[in-house]
Amino acid sequence: MIETDILIIGAGPCGLFTVFEAGLVKLRCHLIDALPQPGGQLSEIYPKKPIYDIPGIPEILAGDLVTDLMEQIKPFKPGFTLGERTETIEKIEDGRFKVVTNRGTVHIAPVIAIAGGLGCFEPRKPPIPNISDFEDKGIEYIIKDPELYRDKKIVIAGGGDSALDWTIFLAEVASEITLVHRRKGFRGAPDSVEKVMQLAENGRIQLLTEAQIVGVNGNGKLDNVVIKHKETGEQQKTTDHFIPLFGLSPKLGPIAEWGLNIDKNAIEVDTFDYRTNIEGIYAIGDINTYPGKLKLILCGFHEATLMVQSAWKKLNPDKKLTLKYTTVQGVNGFEE
After folding, report:
1. pLDDT of the residue at 331
2. Which residue, among 312, 329, 330, 328, has the nearest Cα to 320 in the 3D structure?
């Protein structure tokens, strides 16, 4: 049995940063994650994806951000239960929560922070009948190692941040990139859209809007895709790789059975401190929802900070918390 002050469900960036904030006020943390390593989607799906919106860091690879977060929390010695999925949560007689994983590991804590990202997820696939025939044979839904695409011909489909960011990044790696989007406008960040348009104007990429991939062909591995354009109709394009980036289809999994208020696969929270409808359980990061919610890592860090302050007050109702700045105190000054 594992006992801790704050039990964090999800070891993604928001869960990891929670450890740091909790450590500053001398609260112990333990994290549970179904993945075999910390980092969540950043480690499992996007380790080589560049991230541009971490304050003070112009650009950092997702995997490197995880490495830095792990280094940041090292002084506070968090515990980890990895490769296990949280199954049940129940309140026990002393008011704390008992959390059991699919492998039977028991955790006890007075405060739970759900930082489960999108929950259980799988890539959204385009409706192409034989697409599964070429999965991992030229069709990938997740980019783990950009070097796989070195000097290759690539077709990317999508109009969101992921499609735009990878188009920009792989323009320096691949020999040829075609970005296909079914609309004229994009859903991504304006800066990324501007960069993609500039790449297209400079002939660095081929940009096809009002078009979509309707077929894939090959003999044992992908040889070409069929692009249907609004004006010119269908045409085949030879390619080494087709990467549909239409986002992830989230599923809450066991979280949906815990008695929390759910709205469209997300947990409703109070923005005062990101508490849920169950006292002692908080939700931070992509897993939560509230008016004006933005699914950004930096927003999750903010949510983690306020949540920890509330958790400390809950665990120390008769004490007054004096928040000291790390610039004055230093991290080691907060350790036991």
Report:
1. 57
2. 312
Using one digit for the tens of pLDDT, what is the confidence trace for 299-324? 999 999 999 999 999 999 988 877 65
User: Model pTM greater than 0.85?
Assistant: no
CA distance 99 to 2: 10
Q: Residue 258 burial by CB count (10 A; 0-12/13-18/19+): exposed, middle or buried?
A: buried
Q: Cite the beta strand spans of 36-175 per DSSP E.
A: 50-51, 60-61, 79-82, 86-91, 97-101, 106-109, 111-114, 120-123, 153-157
Q: How high is the pLDDT of residue 335?
A: 47
Q: Are 66 and 42 in contact (CB under 8 A)?
A: yes
Q: Which residues pair with 86 in a beta bridge?
A: 101
Enter the tokens of residue 24. 């500053």
Backbone angles phi, psi at 103, to 5 degrees: -100, 10
Alpha-carbon torsion 72, 76, 82, 86, what sign? negative
For residue 271, give both structure tokens. Answer: 């923005």
Spans in the chain with pLDDT lower than 50: 328, 334-336
Q: Are strands 222-229 and 211-218 parallel, antiparallel or unpaired?
A: antiparallel
Domains present along the chain, CATH in parentheses? 2-121+248-334 (3.50.50.60), 125-244 (3.50.50.60)
pLDDT at res. 336? 42
Task: Round to whole Å and give the CA distance between 271 and 168.
Answer: 35
Q: Cα–Cα distance between 41 and 13 in angstroms, integer?
A: 9
Phi, psi of 197 (to 5 degrees): -60, -40
Report the distance separating Cα 265 and Cα 268, nearest Å. Answer: 10
Are 4 and 107 in contact by the 8 Å Cβ rule? The answer is yes
CA–CA separation, 118 and 40 (whole Å): 10
